[in-house]
Amino acid sequence: MVEFDFIKAILTDNQKINLHFSNKIILSETQEDINGRNNIVQRITIDEDEIDEIEVYKLADENGEIDFSFFKNGTQTPKLLRKFCDYIILCTYKKEFFVVLVELKTSDKNNLTDNFKNAKKQLDAGEVFIKYILSTFDRIKNDGDNKKTFKDIAKCELDPNRCIKKCVFLSNINQTASMNRQKTISAKKIHSDGYYRCDLSVTDTFQLKSILQKK
Questions:
Q1: Which tens digit of pLDDT belongs to each residue from 143-190?
Q2: Other CB atoms within 10 A of residue 13 CB
Q3: Which in 34, 75, 122, 209 has the greatest CB count within 10 A?
Q4: Which CA distances in Å does 5 have to 54, 130, 204?
Q5: What is the DSSP letter of 78?
Q6: How many CB atoms lie within 10 A of CB 188?
Q7: Is 147 exposed, middle or buried (0-12, 13-18, 19+ CB in 10 A)?
Q8: How do 51-57 and 18-19 pair as beta strands?
């Protein structure tokens, strides 16, 4: 799909950021010091059923921050300035282009709501970045050379409100994954402010198309 190819051409090929997977896409995050439990590793396997094209990027470091060279970094840095979501997923599904912003959080069952609220702040940062990328898409798509390289790109329109999905994979460290339900896990909770909360176990499989189907 030309929108997918063009956005992929805009974003870096740096292998530390652009993650190339062989057989499975597994999103992982090490969560430290949760109620006295250290180094809890959250591993979410993406079920690519009916997903036509997919690319995954990780811009944030282990502290959930992004290293923009034009952002200040130090004791005087404004709070949340460098915060960023864990993963950016570009994908196409049923001839539509989507960007899925993902934040992984784990906690004890008593802290799930607070962690969801914190995740939203990092997803907001990712959304601002992606809207800039989509604005760049519109700015350069009509260039003559780009129209030759990417056929019909000038006709493409990407609506941020339609194509951007913000999703929190929220895992209860006390919950054990069930092999019998792996293919059925989806975004069961939809929030009116545009966020999806997906309650999983620490190691689970998530069906990506489940949130792409939602309006």
A1: 999 999 999 999 999 999 999 999 999 888 776 655 444 444 555 555
A2: 9
A3: 122
A4: 10, 15, 30
A5: P
A6: 10
A7: middle
A8: antiparallel
Model-level pTM?
Answer: 0.88
List, edge to edge, every strand of the sheet that includes 189-190. 18-19, 51-57, 87-93, 96-107, 164-172, 195-201, 189-190
Q: How far is CA 38 from CA 19, 34, 63, 177, 200, in A?
A: 26, 6, 15, 19, 19
Q: Where are the alpha helices (DSSP H) in 53-159?
A: 112-140, 144-149
What is the distance between the alpha carbons of residues 51 and 72, in angstroms, rounded to a whole number? 38
Nearest 5°: CA angle at 56, between 84 and 186?
A: 85
Collapse the DSSP code of 15 into the 3-class scheme (helix H, G, I; strand E, B; otherwise coil) and give the result: coil
